[in-house]
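stage 2 :: seqdesign
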């Protein structure tokens, strides 16, 4: 079970695993006025920031504005320093300022192309340590054996105790082909892991048909992230599998750190025909309810695999499936990230991610720091965990998948025993005996 995390979930490439919504500001000309940039950030926070720590006071924020705008700033770099210092007073690591280079990289990353070593990291609010949520499949970190819950204690031999998440990211990132060495603590053992930075192309959906001994076909889909490509890839994969008429599906969200809010909603609509998917609540109490639109791509039974690395948008999707009784959740309790960040562009090319809302499951459950419990708990057995490879996921070598498949096969047997023939079973002899 993961500890309580203050979950700033970032790829080393600055790709967030938060639930992000992009919002364009009114068109403005590029400005070289540092105070204008600072004031725009101040205005966004004052208008939209959702304080979940209880430490933000509007009167203090107003006082801070007067102090900052009475200070002289020589250039935008001075403004950036002032903005970052200003934001630290919010005690919200999700609300972050990105300089023009970082902001541009983040925009590129949300399209599904990543630069870096490919890990999602978090700041533990109790120990203040940098903790790995999960490595990106196929990335340098994944291939080097980085695991969820690994604690990063050094970078290139230098301790990072007390280092901010932003500064940690900057130290690990770098040019493609260069090396970075991470000091990792795993179950009280210190490990040094060398990684070669690279560009990571992500195909977000893996899918196939698994044939079972009972003759039932099981569709397996593994969703790795929620980026701009995810809804289309999911619909293409799901439609392709539907043509093969599986009895049911296993949807694998394990170690999926999340991503774009809209992507999670669109994918949920591919699985859920009717009902609420998610609601978001702002600081003013305004609740935006998002619903299914009667356009699900399948009505076949589904089992969803989740674990401690399933965060944010993964929790929106799994929570919607669970609360709408659309499927069964199997695995471990999810990460517990229930805040929405809006991405705002600034006139000099920089940007701001600001916490603007929290999201609730259809039943009204607040996921933040609580996570979602599976309907059926299942461990990834230790011997499997040591031997399991990427190609083993979703096979009989994968103990959590076996639990999910058995749930579907139990239902398959029940339908057979009810003497209700369906062409999906291919059991013609049995049907003729009716």
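stage 2 :: out
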């Amino acid at each position: 079970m993961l500890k309580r995390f203050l979950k700033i979930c970032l790829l080393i490439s600055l790709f967030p695993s938060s639930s992000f919504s992009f919002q364009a500001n009114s068109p403005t000309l590029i400005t070289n006025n540092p105070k204008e940039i600072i004031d725009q950030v101040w205005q966004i926070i004052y208008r939209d920031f959702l304080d979940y720590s209880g430490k933000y006071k509007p009167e203090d924020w107003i006082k801070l504005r007067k102090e900052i705008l009475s200070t002289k700033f020589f250039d935008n770099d001075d403004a950036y320093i002032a903005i970052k210092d200003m934001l630290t007073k919010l005690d919200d690591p999700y609300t972050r300022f990105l300089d023009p280079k970082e902001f541009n990289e983040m925009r590129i990353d949300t399209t599904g192309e990543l630069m870096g070593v490919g890990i999602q990291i978090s700041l533990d609010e109790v120990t203040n340590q940098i903790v790995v949520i999960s490595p990106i499949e196929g990335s340098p970190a994944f291939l080097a054996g980085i695991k969820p819950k690994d604690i990063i204690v050094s970078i290139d031999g230098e301790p990072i105790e007390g280092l901010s998440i932003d500064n940690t990211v900057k130290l690990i990132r770098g040019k493609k082909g260069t090396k970075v060495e991470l000091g990792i603590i795993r179950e009280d053992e210190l490990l040094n892991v060398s990684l070669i930075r690279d560009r990571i192309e992500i195909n977000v959906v893996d899918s196939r048909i698994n044939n079972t001994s009972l003759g039932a076909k099981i569709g397996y889909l593994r969703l790795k992230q929620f980026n701009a490509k995810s809804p289309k890839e999911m619909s293409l994969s799901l439609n392709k599998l539907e043509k093969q008429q599986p009895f049911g599906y296993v949807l694998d969200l394990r170690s999926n750190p999340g991503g774009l809010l809209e992507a999670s909603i669109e994918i949920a609509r591919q699985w859920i025909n009717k009902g609420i998917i998610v609601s978001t609540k702002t600081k003013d109490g305004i609740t935006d309810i998002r619903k299914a639109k009667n356009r699900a791509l399948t009505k076949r039974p589904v089992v969803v695999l989740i674990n401690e690395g399933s965060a944010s948008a993964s929790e929106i999707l799994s929570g919607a499936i669970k609360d709408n009784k659309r499927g069964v959740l199997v695995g471990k309790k999810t990460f517990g990230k229930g805040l929405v960040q809006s991405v705002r562009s600034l006139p000099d090319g920089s940007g701001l991610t600001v916490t603007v809302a929290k999201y609730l499951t259809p039943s009204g459950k607040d996921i933040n720091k609580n996570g979602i419990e599976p309907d059926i708990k299942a461990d990834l057995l230790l011997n499997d965990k040591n031997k399991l490879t990427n190609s083993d996921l979703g096979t009989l070598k994968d103990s959590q998948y076996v639990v999910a498949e058995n749930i579907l096969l139990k239902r398959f047997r029940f339908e057979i025993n009810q003497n209700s023939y369906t062409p999906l079973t291919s059991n013609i002899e049995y049907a003729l005996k009716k």
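stage 3 :: structure notes
- The chain has twelve helices and 21 strands.
- Confidence is low (pLDDT under 50) at residues 1-18, 24-30, 421-434.
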